[in-house]
């Protein structure tokens, strides 16, 4: 399977973290405990930008809570 260059898909964890402006630690926490829509395909993380935008759009409809210091 080859990675097609699509403006709607972000490949690699570093690019996803840059897009979201979060650290790797927070990225993993969001995926593991909070359902961030990202997945591993052929050993590389990928995410659809539309899914990421929708995830945070839904999350902003409720009062914010600090997840940066939650226990794993």
Structure described in brief:
The protein is of the alpha+beta class. The protein contains 3 helices and 3 strands, in the order βααββα.
Structural account:
With 72 residues, the chain is of the alpha+beta class. It has a domain at 9-58. It has helices at 13-20, 24-34, 49-59; strands spanning 9-11, 39-41, 44-48. A 3-stranded antiparallel beta sheet has the order 1-3-2. It starts with 8 loop residues before the first strand and ends in a 13-residue tail after the last helix.
Percent in strands? 15-25%
The percent of residues in helical segments reads: 40-55%
Biggest sheet record: 3 strands, antiparallel
The mean pLDDT is 83
Give the topology.
Blueprint: E1 9-11, H1 13-20, H2 24-34, E2 39-41, E3 44-48, H3 49-59
Antiparallel strand pairs: 1-3, 2-3
Descriptive terms for the model:
72 residues; alpha+beta; three-stranded antiparallel β-sheet; 3 strands
């Amino acid at each position: 399977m080859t990675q097609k260059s699509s403006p709607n898909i972000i490949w690699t964890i570093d690019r996803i973290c840059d897009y979201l402006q979060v650290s790797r630690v927070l990225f993993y926490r969001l995926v593991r405990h909070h359902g961030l829509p990202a997945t591993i395909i052929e050993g590389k993380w990928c995410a659809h930008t539309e899914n990421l935008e929708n995830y945070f759009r839904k999350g902003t409809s409720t009062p914010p809570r600090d997840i940066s210091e939650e226990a794993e």
